[in-house]
Specification:
Low-confidence stretches: none
Distance between the termini: 20 Å
Number of helices: 6
Number of strands: 3
Structural class: mainly alpha
Mean pLDDT: 76
Order of helices and strands: HEHHHEEHH
Helix content: 40-55%
Oligomer: single chain
């Protein structure tokens, strides 16, 4: 994850940051699930799929001008056939909230199934995950009372 408090001095890039936010979500859910298992709290991460009705790409977020020039009708057709409706995108969230079991806690879901994230070597590294969660929680600890008792934050 590209953040100064996590050892990165790279310049901000919105596409990289979007990917980092997804990786952070996966690591956070995995580690949070581990930390709160004794309190019967489950955490999950998921990918709802590409939802056509969101405005995520309204400002050209997902593609640079160079990428847009390389788009062909074949590529555009492929993307349009992979988009989901809002209901289809919500299905994995609903599954995780209502049907996932304690044994599935901390896992990453896609299409209502456990999936292996692309960066699984990072996600499965206990040291990296723990450092990420502890740094994240320290960054927000003094800014919110929503966390309640945060004595478990080191």
């Amino acid at each position: 994850v590209h953040h100064p408090e996590l050892g990165s001095d790279e310049e901000f890039d919105h596409v990289v940051s979007y990917g980092d936010s997804k990786l952070a979500n996966i690591m956070h859910a995995h580690e949070l699930n581990k930390q709160l298992a004794s309190k019967d709290v489950l955490a999950f991460s998921l990918h709802p799929g590409a939802i056509l009705t969101t405005n995520l790409g309204r400002d050209g977020f997902a593609m640079s001008p160079g990428m847009k020039k390389q788009m062909t009708w074949e590529t555009i057709s492929f993307f349009l056939t992979t988009f989901k409706s809002s209901a289809q995108g919500a299905a994995t969230t609903v599954y995780a909230a209502l049907k996932a079991t304690a044994a599935e806690g901390g896992k990453y879901f896609y299409d209502c199934n456990i999936a292996e994230p692309v960066y699984s070597s990072v996600v499965n590294d206990d040291t990296v995950r723990s450092k990420f969660l502890q740094t994240s929680l320290r960054m927000v600890k003094d800014k919110t009372s929503v966390l309640g008792d945060v004595s478990w934050i080191k």
